[in-house]
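Fold it.
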Amino acid sequence: MNVGMRVRGGLLATLLLFAAPVAGTLAAMVMSSPAAAQTVATIEVEGNRRVEVETIRSYFKPGSDGHLDQGTIDDGLKALIETGLFQDVKINNVHGHLVVSVVENPVIGRVAFEGNKKVKDEQLSAEVQSKPRGTFSRPMVQSDAERIAEIYRHSGRYDVHVTPEIIEQPNNRIDLIFTITEGEKTGIKSIEFIGNVAYSSYRLKDVIKTRESNLLSFLGGNDVYDQDRIEADRDLIRRFYLSHGFADVQVVAALTEYDPDKKGFLVSFKIEEGQQYRVASVNFQSSIATLDGNTLSSFSRVYVGSLYNAEALEKSVEEMQIEASRRGYAFAVVKPRGDRNFEAHTVSIIFTIDEGPRTYIERINIKGNTRTREYVIRREFDISEGDAYNRALVDRAERRLKNLDFFKTVKITTEPGSSSDRVVLIVDLEEKSTGDFSVSGGYSTTDGPLAEVSISEKNFLGRGLFAKASVTYGEYARGVSLSFVEPYLLDYRVAAGLDVYYRQQLANDDISYGTTTIGFSPRLGFALREDLSLQLRYSLYQQSITLPSTLDNCDNLAGPNFLPTPTYINQVLGGVDPTGNSQNGFVPGCLADGESSLPVREELTQGAEWVSSVGYTLNYNTLDNNKNPTDGLLLDFKQDFAGVGGDVSYLKSTIDGKYYAPLVADIVGIVHVQAGTLNQVGSSPLRMLDNFQMGPNLVRGFAPNGIGPRDLTFFPFTGTGDALGGTKYWGASMEFQMPFWFLPKEVGLKGAVYADAGSLWDYQGPTSNAATGEINGLVNGKYCSCAMVYDDSNVVRSSVGIGLIWASPFGPLRFDYAIPITQGKYDVVQQFKFGGGTSF
């Protein structure tokens, strides 16, 4: 980077570029003994235009006798120069009087930027210190040029050149122009790891934030060289190893080298892994007489036989120290100690609990929150002014502030207070944009093409509130939704949310009817622990069915009759025709153009119905990464009770668990189990709409609503064969995800092989409906069946398949091809499935 300065103009240019240095000024001063007898009042000032005479005189501090000596004059001269208000300051003794001659710095008329295309003027103006109507200062301008160059470096442009230019204007004013040559982006051409044995370079690239440049890098920004990010990556690598048993790991260096041929940086991380350790024992020692250390053992997340995990160790210390504070030991300090057995590769953990120094928090000073209200920041602290200083609680507050995602940086430091037992907490923040406007697009074999426009704000009005509005429009799915969340209800750590929605699902190849749902759902969320949460909710919604007239046009007085074929009677009805008499029974001819299932027509007859339910969700999450997990457990247990008013009553219970485990060579194993039951409550019968509907969400290789109980009345000849759903289901899946090692990591492609099994059965819903005007048997000599014929066999469905997963710049995409191994007689197969979308 080059930083230079050019001056346009005449006399001013001469003054700026050829002014004598300070040392020369001091040497040129003519001082004589009578000057020492001068007082501040007798100082004469010349050359000043804007700065008052008294202001200049105030920099000269007389001695106790009220007179100026040589030392005080020198100090005054230096102080005037350091103000930055003057280009030159001289002191002379003229006829026994002290004369201060000044040349004032010009005033900046305007600050402009030329040549900047990648960074806006507004951003640069906010960063430079030189401001319009401010005083010109050469050191400040040089500093501003460096700051502009630094902004470009952070965006990956290391070949930037910034040249300040000065244009002289009348009345001692200037215009300051920063001319910028931006240069090209300097990317990361390669990332290498040296010394890694336990984990491949492919796996470690998942750990760090820096990425190699590729054809799609323009959609991201982590491929540009940023020294701060690389240093942060060193810490990420170290913490990764420490959390996987490598207690001696050292990331010795992060070496960066610019390759002029490749026009980019080569980055190498040098790692010394050391040995992998397991926990041999966990003990507790307390030096506080009234506190038994063993009583804190339940708060430890370190277990005998497990891999040494520094992250679990930190959380254990935090939980134990907080619990000790709750018990009245506000100054208790928990420190872990690890005794290594280098031969056995084990470590013995000892938690020591001691009485710490009695230090109190005098103040909590918050800096940098230009938008976020101060109380939003303070409520993340479990401590306040006057409380005992607890480092574990301070660390927790810092982590919570970072997790808010309101700030670019969060740093909490301490400063000495007014006395030795007082500290001041300094919370230094940098705000960032928290609003989001997105246009999302996608396609799936279930919903077809789909688009969504949404606007959201996670720090609404600077009060920490979340608000979102979205509109969805697709081939088969449409809707509008509004969401609002107050994370601290009544100043308690309870999240209160409200969803209001309108959804429309249209008829498609999988279902013959459409549904319209409109409702709202308030909810409360509680964080029981960092890995355990509880949500309570209430839902009230109205649901109705729409049906094409051709599928609901049959009545008892229909015209020409249709004769069921012997094949239909034998295969579907077991050799007995719908009349129960012989194979010569008749059905209304209106069935020739199809007829929807009886439960669908009953819902249509009933009209819109209200569902009022209360429920809860218990969530347990130990995943290492919520977006791309490779290790941990995710478990959800849900129950919903409908019948708190409304037209429907039931109890619905589901459980869903996913376990991720890293295997060999960057392969991740996933076990997925799920199950659910639906039970009738009271005398109100279950509706078909209340039942579970399953397909590829249970066993891949089947169509949506493709498995489980199905209507067979006049199917497949004139009926629609609607899926009826079931009240019980279970599913199990084993999947292995693996990278394509021959492709660059940045491509983001992974492969998957899997096997699924599951079943859906036990239809409970209407099987006859006199309300539609249908009566069993013959009506006016014409047959109309009120009894529904359906299949409800409890068959285990299973499949095997392969998948392609792409973490693309256009959003996550997944392609699956599955082959059913076992299936029900009337199940609908769909071997290929695709889904994905993004925001842009």
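Residues 435-546 form one domain.
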